[in-house]
Specification:
This protein has about 625 residues and is α/β, with parallel strands linked by helices. The chain is about 55% helix and about 15% strand.
Length: about 625
């Protein structure tokens, strides 16, 4: 018989190309991926074996030569398991994703597949006696036996078993891959039918190549989910995995690790070295949780998912690692981190987005300080629900929940009011009193901070218009205001409308405004309004962003020194000398120093002795509602 082996040779070539590319690709070393590499080698071996079986050692040897019998028998022994290999890969894929409840179905399908191939092996082993699969006639010609197409039937049976498993577990399979493995059996069955019709054309290798190519393309597609820098899985993959774990209710511990002040590492050592530190963190986390998955969650954030029963030790090991130094290429640095921990199944997980839950928890952990861990529990969920409701309220509010309180800044020499600071307050029946630290960041996130600033400015101008004898009012502006080209025009038009002199309004800006991407915009904003007569004050000086070289170049009238620098000034000489030096430097640079947070007579007397002229704090005057403020300062 003359065989057409061209499809088999082409298939062999394609497999060699896939194998070469697969060996150059960095994948996660999972059992499924190892099995895929094994299946490539096995298929190449089977195709070579098939080609050898079709090349007779001696032509027309009566009843076939030993060579013919050995290689044709080997073909029937080793080639049919190819369909089993593909189905076992599918089992691996599903087992990685399906919940424990699916284990019986997966186990049953695996047993059926293995038993079918074991039972089948009896046929080729005893073929030399039964001739059920093939034999050679007296002229040495190859003759098909009655069960010659049994391997094809076995392949179809395996495909149907695998297909039924895929369909029953479709909820746990990636939609793209599901489409591939649903269509692939249909195509394979068509090829098998063609093989039975065109008996001299060998298509069995092509069938397996289709299957392996589909798997390889799935691997290549999944590479999109790899973070380029660390070579670990990225945020999108983490989110997809998390959703899947929630849907399948698997017992899992999820941990987000957020580095603190990592920008300092980049600024100090350069971005290239910063990237090396990020890689080192990722690799170290992978060593701590070798049975879990490590993800690059964000720029300087990582996530871990583990389901292997060592969650408590994992959390402790990760947190302890960040208590030690990190050394990269001779450079040593201490990397602080904050942690958010979510344990699944979470009974209320369906009522909130899990990533929002983790991000809220990591933000809370950062607020508590470096090294802190926050668990995503019922209290956190209540906070998120409150935040969501508060966001809706802010978006719908027309200002009815807001009011202005006023806190004076006094001359520490004469006791007179230097100016007053307008403080935005929020209170409603639904939420009660809401702290500015809660609603101001939320307003910035929602993009309505500009509306609040406009409201504060207009209310202050209305007040000054009715009572021009009031002191100058100082307003707090967010750095986000400087991206709004209409704000300068609004400030000018509002003051003109209420006939308020520009000298009666100060604008306070925090240090963070000038040590971020808003610097140039803020400076241009300041210059135009200063030329018009409005003064600017720098708020919260000393909170971590301070740079005297930049401060000198900025057109401030006053520098408000943060209250944190007042701690222990009376009992600790070093602290006292420190704040005395700051006040002295601020005055020498031509700025007016204002000390915030004066809470005792002792602090007040100390500030007077070091020559600080102005101050603000509860000891001098707590913030007053508008009616009390007017009563106090108009009488």
């Amino acid at each position: 018989m003359t065989w057409n082996v061209a499809p088999e040779i082409v298939s062999l070539g394609l497999l060699l190309v896939i194998l070469q590319n697969a060996s150059m690709t960095k994948w996660r070393v999972s059992p499924r991926e190892k099995f895929f590499i094994f299946s490539l080698y096995y298929t190449i071996f089977a195709i070579v074996l098939n080609l050898l079986s079709m090349v007779p050692f001696v032509q027309n040897t009566p009843y076939g030569s030993l060579y013919d019998w050995i290689f044709n028998t080997a073909y029937f022994v080793f080639y049919p398991p190819l369909s089993l290999i593909f189905n076992i890969y599918i089992v691996y894929y599903i087992a990685e994703r399906a919940p424990k409840e699916s284990s019986p179905k997966i186990r049953t399908a695996t047993i059926i597949l293995l038993l079918s191939i074991v039972i089948y092996q009896i046929v080729p082993i005893f073929n030399f006696k039964t001739n059920w699969l093939f034999y050679f006639d007296s002229q040495g010609n190859y003759i098909r036996g009655l069960l010659n197409h049994l391997p094809l039937g076995l392949a179809i049976f395996g495909i149907l078993v695998g297909l039924s498993l895929v369909i029953s577990q479709r909820h746990y399979i990636d939609p793209y891959f599901f489409k591939v493995i649903v269509w692939l059996p249909i195509i394979t069955i068509v090829i098998i039918v063609l093989q039975s019709i065109f008996t001299q054309v060998i298509l069995t290798g092509a069938t397996m190549v289709l299957a392996l190519t589909a798997i390889y393309l799935n691997f290549q597609t999944s590479k999109i989910s790899i973070d380029n820098l660390t070579q670990f899985l990225n945020r999108e993959t983490f989110v997809a995995t998390l959703v899947q774990l929630i849907n399948t209710k698997q017992k899992t511990t999820v941990m987000v690790v957020s580095l603190n002040n990592f920008k300092v590492v980049n600024d100090t050592f350069g971005q290239a070295m910063g990237d090396r530190f990020l890689k080192a963190v990722a690799n170290s986390l992978a060593e701590i949780v070798p049975q879990g998955e490590v993800y690059r969650y964000g720029g300087d954030e990582f996530a871990i998912i583990t389901t292997k029963g060592r969650e408590l030790s994992m959390v402790g090991d990760v947190m302890n690692r960040f208590k030690s130094h990190w050394s990269i290429n001779g450079i040593t640095s201490r990397l602080g981190a904050s942690f958010a921990i979510l344990q699944l199944p979470f009974k209320d997980a369906s009522s909130v987005d899990a990533t929002s839950l983790l991000e809220f928890a990591i933000q809370r952990a950062k607020e508590q300080g470096s090294g802190q861990a926050v668990y995503c529990d019922a209290l956190i969920l209540e906070d998120i629900k409150r935040r969501t409701l508060l966001a809706d309220h802010l978006l719908q509010s027309q200002g009815e929940s807001f009011s202005l309180h006023f806190q004076p800044i006094y001359s520490l020499v004469t006791g007179e009011v230097f100016f007053v600071e307008a403080l935005l307050r929020m209170e409603s029946e639904k939420f009660g009193k809401v702290l500015p630290s809660e609603f101001i960041p939320l307003a910035e996130e929602l993009g309505i901070i500009g509306d609040l600033s406009r409201w504060v400015l207009e209310k202050s101008c209305q007040l000054l218009s009715r009572h021009p004898q009031l002191p100058t009012i100082s307003l707090n502006f967010s750095g986000l205001q400087f991206n709004d080209p209409s704000m300068i025009l609004f400030v000018k038009e509002t003051l003109q409308h209420y006939q308020v002199p520009p000298s009666k309004i100060n604008i306070e800006l925090t240090e963070s405004t000038f040590f971020s991407t808003f610097f140039e915009d803020a400076l241009a904003f300041m210059d135009e309004l200063i030329a018009w007569g409005i003064k600017f004050h720098l708020d919260d000086f000393g909170t971590g962003y301070s740079s005297l070289s930049r401060m000198i170049a900025l057109p401030f009238a006053c520098i408000k020194i943060d209250r944190s620098l007042l701690r222990y000034t009376s009992s600790e000489k070093a602290q006292g000398d420190f704040i005395k030096s700051i006040v002295s430097i601020v005055k020498q640079l031509g700025f007016c120093p204002v000390i915030e947070g004066i809470e005792s007579e002792e602090e007040l007397q100390f500030l007077r002795t070091i020559g600080c002229d102005f101050g603000q704090g509860y000891h001098l005057q707590r913030p007053l509602p508008q009616d009390q403020f007017l009563e106090k300062f108009l009488t």
